[in-house]
Amino acid sequence: MISKLLIANRGEIACRIIRTARAMGIATVAVYSDADAKALHVRQADEAVHIGPSPAAESYLVGKKIIEAAKQTGAEAIHPGYGFLSENAGFAQAVIDAGLIWVGPKPSSIEAMGLKDAAKKLMRAAGVPVTPGYEGEDQSVERLTKEADAIGYPVLIKAVAGGGGKGMRKVDAAADFEAALESCRREAKASFSNDEVLLEKWITSPRHIEVQVFGDSHGNVVHLFERDCSLQRRHQKVIEEAPAPGMDEATREEICAAAVRAAKAVDYEGAGTIEFIADASEGLRADRIFFMEMNTRLQVEHPVTEEITGVDLVEWQLRVASGEPIPLKQEELSIKGWAIEARLYAEDPAKGFLPSTGRLEIFEIYGDRIETGVSQGDSISPFYDPMIAKLVVHGSDREEAIDHLASACADTCVWPVATNATFLACCLVHREFRAGEISTGFIAEHESLLTNFGPMREQLHDAVGSAILSTTARKYPAADGFRLNANSKLRVFADVGEGTQSFVTSFALEDSFIQTFPVSDGLVLFEKGQPLHAVTSVHGTGHASAADGAIIAPMPGKVIAVDVAEGDAVTAGQRLMVLEAMKMEHALTAPFDGNVTGLSVEQGSQVQVEAVLCVVEPGAAEPAE
Known about the structure:
By secondary structure, the protein is an alpha+beta fold. 29% of the residues lie in helices and 30% in strands.
């Protein structure tokens, strides 16, 4: 058995691996970048090695530094987690060549499944059902157009080296094909240095069904049943569950057997996932479930499989990597109850899912099982994936599990970093989701409803007055007034004296729904995951706000365009500047008609979160003389 393990990853998956390793008596080594010097995975590991600057390309993606760290600390094995270098065949081989144990499949298996076109050909040969399409070597526009016509529209163009939704275009009509192909190739070339594509028949009622497989060096391969990962946003999974709703035993047996055949076709060892796309227009049927790709690593959503099988997949990984056989045989594995996982992201659904960064002043999350790489007081940086936790629950059936997870999401209290907690709760209580009537297009179809938090904010507004009176007024007896602010940039000022008292007592505090946390400048209230920050302040003073006309940076970033000058007249909604952060562009606009004053940035400026970039003075939009 491995005695010392280096984890070539960060965040919640690093903490997850450390937990199992410690239970097995295995010493752990963490690696970290500048941004992660005080991170939870660093604090939990037995040892930690610094591997470079904050950008992943200069730290977590530099294989030589990770191998050197393993040698330096005497680690025998490297576990890659997921993401970063976990599916890099070259890195896996370099680990093996360095005399270390690679906790994962053989490099040849990773390589065989690395390109979607080659993988599909291999799966067809193994008798695994594959979506109708074209994966040929002839990449001419003429040949691809001809094949698309033969498949029939709509068709899906996919980069052969793609992932994460990049290099992918749906085409509804022949007239649009060439332009979509050109766009797809440009994106694929920029993202993967490979502009080759394949074509697939577009599935009209798609469900994302995947099967957990596991192999060892003794020729054994088993499956651990299926998961449903259909709730996605822009091809990124949001909520996952096991088993899949609507899956009957006959279909389960066929699809799981196909997954085992797929794993055996590449002589697979370790944990892997066979991903299928299902045409669910007539329910789940084995003849309408097709192979998409194989993920040659542990998946983000592996906890739901662990919850229904009672298996620790990381323990299995470490045992198999040490040369042991799989601990259980196929007939010893069974499904017990239902499990659902929600990914808690640092993002604001009400603002187009804009990523959020900063220090976690309040961080209280719930679930039967919580997987996270942060704790209260830690900071969310702009350098890595915005997922901050996975909330996992287990129930005797699907309805119980949904209720439990919806409550956990609604009880989530995180501030001032914005999260998708309320959005998750809305997804879980939606009638179609509860009925199992879901597809990969569910979130896109209902996004406006799922991100409409107005009623919850109204309840918070109605609660703040009494909360201020009963809590903040006692804490700040000399305060002359109070101000309320939320993500919606709401600002309410109260006059001193009888007017204030009358205003406050008109509110009603619903203690059964509202959670209240005192903070240094007032208090924060939560309703179904939605925060409202109530700040004590002297009337007419305080920090700049959007309602005051201040244009505030929503996150750290770089100003890539400035469209106005000092004194310019602007109208409501006019673009003032563009901020780039976390690989996204965010346009900042005028909140009302007025004139620009206090412009403090220029193109190329680096700004911090909540920095005041300029102010729009309200009134008639007249240019300054």
